[in-house]
Amino acid sequence: MNSFFSLITKNCRKFKIYPGPDPKQAIMGSLVFCIHHKQGCTWSDELRKLKAHLNVCKHDATQCPNKCGAQIPRIMMTDHLQYTCTMRRTKCEFCQSEFSGAGLEEHAGTCGQEPIYCEAKCGQRVLRGRMTLHKSKDCTKRLRRCLHCNREFSADTLALHVNQCPRAPTVCPQRCDVGPIARADLEAHLRDECKALAIACSFKEAGCRFKGPRHLLEAHLEANAAAHLSLMVALSARQGQQIQMLKSAVSKLSINFTGTLLWKITDWSAKMAEAKGKDGLELVSPPFYTSQYGYKLQASMFLNGNGPGENTHVSVYIKVLPGEYDALLKWPFSHSITFTLFEQGAQSGQGGVAESFVPDPTWENFQRPSNEPDQLGFGFPRFISHDLLYKRPFIKDDTVFLRVKVDPSKIVAV
Ligand SMILES: [Zn+2]
Ligand SMILES: [Zn+2]
Ligand SMILES: [Zn+2]
Ligand SMILES: [Zn+2]
Ligand SMILES: [Zn+2]
Ligand SMILES: [Zn+2]
Ligand SMILES: [Zn+2]
Q: Which residues contact 139 (CB under 8 A, 6 or more apart)?
């Protein structure tokens, strides 16, 4: 230690010591960046100049001049003063009133001059301060009551409703003296009350042409009872004719044109009993045609027989009836006729009794028939004996089937 001290002392004595650079001066002279370098300030200079730089550095925070208490980087100050400073002076853009920043925030959303959309969704923008008035007076969505029916409608649909409102008053289209009538009651008025509406007489269908106001109709009906009655009689006669025409049209539609009649005779035992009690009781078949434009024929049957078969046999006959096409047909009728009485049931098969004949050209029965209803038939008085009839299964379910077949070939077929 001593030796070191002495060395310095020695040195001090021996050498003139020049003052070295002042360390403080040296530090102050070192090159530095601005403390806001990272925020983007590019300033760089001696440390001693930093303080002066910070007084102007865009990135350094300073007190807001409005004394709102905020420390704001200079670069943001204009924005702060304009927009965010709570102490800034500003104007509401709608009413132009002056506010501090905080006051404006409170004012926003309540300004009476701000246009806002109508809450009733009518699509209009209205100043907030006029909204109540709008909703009660102009808004197309405000509710209004129909004066006639008292129901509520939005203002824009009320007119349409009134045009159809069932309670809206209308005048009678017949201009009768009744006052305004609710639209819904008009139909009943015209139907039941209207004095001006001309109504047709209730005998119109029968041909009465009277048409007049309701109050005259009753007098008309009273005065014309006899005339109405004769109109009705004539109407009923016309309808009777129509029914006849329809009947004949229907029977034409159902007539058989095949040349073969299968005649089903039901209630056999009752009919047989009746035939036994009544002489000459003849059962006739539905008429049929030999072809579409052919001869009209009808079969008949005496259940208790007639002529040589009386009381012992069933007799069958065919007769020619006056037909639609007789004028065009060849006379005398000369087709062969076969009668077959069928046995019924599976065991006996389709057996039966059959008889045929070919008309002789000289027989009167087959000349063209006149319109006399009682033409004679031709056939077999002893077609089948009652004995055989009940021996074999010809009758089943009290029903008998007789087939009458017409064959233009003249060959007698069984
Ligand atoms: Zn800076
Ligand atoms: Zn401020
Ligand atoms: Zn305002
Ligand atoms: Zn509105
Ligand atoms: Zn209404
Ligand atoms: Zn009327
Ligand atoms: Zn009449």
A: 118, 120, 122, 124, 155
